[in-house]
Amino acid sequence: MDRILVCLKRAVDYNVRIRVKTDGSGVITDGVKMSVNPFDEIALEEALRIREKGETGEVVVVSIGPDACQQQLRVGLAMGADRAIHVRTDRALEPLDIARILVRIAEAEKPGLIMLGKQAIDGDNNQTGQMLAALWERPQATFVSELTISGTTATAVREVDAGLETIEFDLPAVVTSDLRLNEPRYVKMPDIMKAKRKPLATTELEELGITPQTRVTVLQTAAPPARQKGKMVADAAELVAELKRMDLA
C-alpha cells in the first residue's frame, strides 16, 4: 500500500463550553479554541502506526475549509504525517459535498486506505465516511475499534449495538475510527518545528469542478434546557409516590 489518506476536520475543541449566539443562528466560534476533530485525530494515529509497521509508505492529511484549517493540518504534520493537502473554501459544506471532494482527491492520490473519524463532534452527522465509500465504489468499515492490515486485505473489529463485529475486506477501502481504536500521541515541540518544513499544498474548491449545494437549512439553534433541581425524599415510599406523580414508575 503506497499511501494512506487521512481526513482532518477543524472543530471547536472538545474542552470548550459551547455557547449559542443570541439570535439562535448558530454557536459562537469567534475567539474560541479550535482543534482537530478528536475522532479524526484517532484515525491519523492509526495511520501513523500502520506506517511504522512498514505496511504503507506515506501518510497524507487533507482538510477542507478556510485558511485557518492549515493550523490543524500543521498539527497532523507534527504528529508525523508526511504531507498535507488543503482544499480552500469559505463555504459551509454538507457531508455529501465533502465526500465528493474527497473522491476527487482520492482519484489523484490513489490511496490504499482513506481514514477519518466516525463523526465530527460539531455536526455529529456520521455520514461522510459512508458517502465517500459509496461514491468511490470501495468497501467500508465503520466504527472501527481494532484494525489489522495484511497485504491487500484488512480485518476490522467494529463496535455495533449488539457488541463487537469482526469483518474482513479488500483494499482500497474507507475506514472510520471509533473512540477505542487508540490513544493519539502527544505532539512535542521539535515535531512542531519540523512540521513547518513539510509540504502543504493548497487547492481552491473551484479547481476540483465541484459546486456545493445547500440541502439542509438550520432554522434555529438553542442550548439544552437547564437541569432541574433535585428533590430530597425521606424514604422509598415517598420516592415511589414521587415517581408515580411524574409517570416514571
Q: How would you describe this structure in keywords?
A:
9-stranded mixed beta sheet, two-stranded antiparallel sheet, 11 strands, 27% helix, Rossmann fold, alpha/beta
Low-confidence stretches: none
As laid out across the biggest beta sheet, the strand order is 9-8-7-10-6-1-4-5-11
User: What assembly state would you assign to the polypeptide chains in this entry?
Assistant: single chain
Looking at the overall shape, the CATH architecture is 3-Layer(aba) Sandwich
> Roughly how much helix do the residues carry, as a percent range?
25-40%
- The total count of strands amounts to 11
Query: What pattern of helices and strands is seen along the backbone?
Result: EEEHEHEHEHEEEEHEH
Provide the gyration radius in Å: 21 Å
Average of per-residue pLDDT values: 93
Give the arrangement of secondary structure elements.
Elements: E1 3-7, E2 10-12, E3 34-36, H1 38-52, E4 58-65, H2 69-79, E5 83-88, H3 95-109, E6 113-117, H4 128-136, E7 140-150, E8 153-160, E9 163-170, E10 173-177, H5 189-195, E11 200-204, H6 236-245
Parallel strand pairs: 1-4, 1-6, 4-5, 5-11, 6-10, 7-10
Antiparallel strand pairs: 2-3, 7-8, 8-9
